[in-house]
Write a structure and sequence with these properties.
The complex is a heterodimer of chains A (276) and B (304). Chain A is of the alpha/beta class. Chain A has one domain: Vaccinia Virus protein VP39 (Rossmann fold). Helices cover 26% and strands 25% of the residues of chain A. A 7-stranded mixed sheet of chain A has the order 3-2-1-4-5-12-8, sandwiched between helices. A 3-stranded antiparallel sheet of chain A has the order 9-11-10, with no helix packed on it. In chain A, strand 10 and strand 11 form a beta hairpin. In chain A, helix 1 packs parallel to helix 5. The longest helix of chain A is centred in the N-terminal third of the chain and has 20 residues. Chain A is globular, with a radius of gyration of 18 Å. Chain A starts with a helix and ends with a strand. Chain B has a single domain, classed as Rossmann fold. In chain B, strands 3-2-1-4-5-11-8 form a 7-stranded mixed sheet, sandwiched between helices. A two-stranded antiparallel sheet of chain B has the order 6-7. In chain B, helix 1 runs parallel beside helix 5 and helix 7 runs parallel beside helix 8. The chains are: A alpha/beta (276), B alpha/beta (304).
């Protein structure tokens, strides 16, 4: 079954990669011209810890804009993603931007990364819409611990599990619960032809399988695998990318619940350090 | 000679004045009145089962026994903050702990002392009447193996940094903090919604200067009780704030667990199981396990 979910999700991501490369949301032209693709949250919280020569592993990197942004900042970055289309785009961008020496990209399913990558890193990084594609965060945490040097840092900036609970027909005045917080490994099946980065795009591989994960389910396996919690931060806003009608994008490019902009948790970040 | 440049107090120098009480006077008075009233009601409330406790049953929930039990042995010293009338404190004493319970309500503390006597546990149970933020004045420099907090405690506190500092100050190095609580997200749900409607009514994020001020209707442990004229002042807390307060106090987080059941009914359409846990029902009448209603956190004070 898991293989079937993976196949469906992979077909979707392979197909939407070219849509995303051409989309306004990802703004590849702006990125080529020097725009930092990282959000203000990541820049503020992880930015100071990434300098010249920092080795950084980016899990589930899509087509690599954020990986390359860290490389531009001096990191020796490795991006991995399960989509061959995404990895091909990432490599092509790295080449075009002269960052091939600082940014390498690997195609692999997350859980099979140890088959293709040895190394240990100063930083393991992942972000925005990565966790919903993973059924099992225990194995995810083992992978993270595996790739961190002693004293190394794990950092994630992500959509909040509370945001994924809200019903599609919610309004700012009536935010109703429509989806699970706990899924116990059982995916939600979605069939949507609209893409989050380009609502007008029409794709063929529209069925995906996704897993919401509670904060405990995210943090606990990392603690069990020898990482120490430095901080959990939660934000009542998020980066543009959640296609929910009760959210609006402000002038700062961040999404909030209309009229309730400091009440609901829409994103979080987590920094942890590998003991030793 | 004082040293203004470092701000270090020298010998004989007056101690810095205590920080102002984070609880506004009207909130403190209202909550004290409420908890004294609830304490009288709760001695005989269905949600507490005091008679069962006196006959030998534990009042602790399975999750507390499972997760903190392994840290409590004969002679373990345990501080229970915001202990209400002490059933849970005394349940730990019955398992061998030497316990100190602290609560703001004089009615609750008097009842706790009386129940300790009736249960034959007075020798290993001490109860202190104190507002949480005044705990240091009563506890001095006493250290405990375990600091314990449970079910509906932190919502009465506006300032978790000071709370966590009290926790950390009274834990011995290597000691264990354990808290079983209402889930912060669940607390944001509309408790007045019609049956079956799950929607957000309250803020998830903390607002220390904006307490929720609610007229009290009955009690979580006795919905029909007469609480005419009583008002509750409560404060919302997020996971980030809770965990950040504990790490800021120098504790290392050991676990964060979340559970799909509640310690008390959020709505009258929740149902109670044999372990006194409360559940939403799914369409087939089974327990819904998809939403979080409680959580637990364990943390350790590092030895160095």
């Amino acid at each position: 079954m898991l293989d079937d979910y993976l196949k469906a999700n992979l077909a979707s991501w392979d197909e939407v990669t070219s849509v995303h490369v051409a989309s306004e949301l990802y703004d590849v032209d702006g990125f080529k011209a020097g725009r930092n693709s990282l959000s203000s949250i990541e820049q503020a919280e992880l930015g100071p810890l990434v300098g010249e020569g920092t080795s950084l592993l980016h899990l589930q990197c899509h087509f690599g804009l954020d990986t390359l942004s860290w490389a531009r900042q001096g990191a020796i970055a490795t991006g991995m993603d399960f989509s061959g289309e995404a990895i091909a785009q990432a490599r092509s961008l790295a080449e075009e931007l002269g960052l091939s020496q600082r940014a390498t990209f690997l195609q692999s399913d997350l859980y099979h990364l140890p088959d293709v990558l040895e190394d240990e890193f100063d930083v393991v990084f992942t972000s925005w819409g990565a966790l919903i594609w993973l059924a099992d965060l225990e194995r995810w945490a083992q992978i993270i611990a595996r790739y961190l040097k002693p004293g190394g840092i794990f950092y994630i900036a992500e959509f909040h599990p509370n945001a994924f609970l809200l019903a599609d027909d919610s309004t700012p005045e009536s935010l109703r619960i429509g989806y699970p917080y706990f899924q116990y490994g059982v995916p939600q099946r979605f069939d949507e032809s609209a893409d989050y980065a380009d609502p007008d795009a029409r794709t063929q591989n529209t069925v995906t399988f996704e897993w919401n994960h509670g904060l405990g389910e995210i943090i606990d396996p990392l603690l069990r695998n020898g990482l120490r919690l430095d901080f959990l931060h939660e934000f009542p806003y998020t980066i543009a990318g959640l296609p929910f009608p009760f959210l609006e994008v402000g002038e700062d490019g961040l999404q909030r619940v209309k009229g309730r902009d400091d009440e609901v948790a829409l994103s979080f970040s987590l920094k942890m350090t590998k003991e030793g | 000679m004082s040293d203004e440049s470092t701000g270090v107090a020298g010998p004989g120098r007056a101690e810095a004045p205590a920080a102002p009480d984070p609880i506004p006077a009207e909130a403190r008075a209202a909550n004290l009145k409420l908890w004294n009233a609830w304490s009288r009601i709760h001695e005989h409330a269905p949600g507490y089962n005091t008679a069962g406790f006196l006959s030998g049953e534990t009042s602790l929930k399975p999750v507390e026994l499972e997760e903190l039990g392994p840290f409590v042995h004969e002679g373990t010293t345990l501080l229970h903050l915001q202990c209400h009338f002490g059933l849970d404190t005394l349940s730990w004493a019955r398992l061998g702990a030497d316990v100190v319970g602290l609560d703001l309500s004089d009615v609750a503390v008097a009842l706790a002392r009386r129940l300790a006597g009736e249960a034959g546990l007075s020798a290993r149970a001490e109860f202190i009447c104190s507002d949480l933020y005044d705990a240091d004045a009563h506890l001095g420099d006493r250290l405990f193996d375990v600091v314990f907090v449970n079910w509906g405690a932190i919502e009465w506190l506006p300032d978790l940094e000071r709370w966590a500092a009290i926790v950390a100050r009274h834990l011995r190095p290597g000691g264990t903090f354990y808290m079983a609580e209402i889930h912060p997200f669940a607390r944001s749900l509309d408790d007045a919604a019609p049956e079956g409607v799950l929607r957000i009514a309250y803020r998830y994020f903390p607002a220390p200067d904006e307490p929720d001020i609610d007229a009290v209707e009955g009690s979580y442990a006795d919905p029909g009780a007469d609480t005419e004229g009583l008002v509750a002042y409560g404060w919302s807390h997020s996971f980030a704030e809770i965990l950040g307060s504990l790490t800021g106090g120098g504790l290392r987080i050991d676990h964060l667990h979340e559970f799909p059941y509640a310690p008390a009914p959020f709505w009258d359409w929740m149902v109670e199981d044999a372990d006194r846990l409360w559940w939403l029902l799914d369409e087939e009448g089974g327990y819904r396990r998809d939403l979080p209603f409680s959580c637990s956190i364990r943390a350790t004070k590092p030895v160095t």
